[in-house]
Specification:
single chain, 77 residues, mainly alpha, 0% strand
């Protein structure tokens, strides 16, 4: 039984996704902190919404990146 080879293109795609995840992991809390620090400003609600959205996208892209990396290493689709 031949051993599966690593799909390098899929691995690079997964690592790019993890890079985006890392960026969003720092951006989301930064925006949330900026929003919660200024409750009397007019951009209070939009900053909170953008921060929560960035944190949610970080979680989504984190799972997607790990799934892509695992597929490249172990021969998934």
């Amino acid at each position: 039984m031949p051993t599966p080879k690593t799909n390098k293109k899929l691995l690079v795609d997964g690592l790019k996704t993890m890079g985006l995840t890392l960026f969003l992991m720092f951006l989301g809390p930064f925006i949330l902190h900026a929003g919660f620090s200024n409750p009397n400003k007019p951009l209070y609600i939009p900053l909170i919404v953008c921060g929560i959205l960035a944190c949610s996208l970080a979680i989504y892209f984190g799972f997607k990146g790990i799934k892509t990396i695992m597929a490249s290493l172990f021969g998934g689709k």
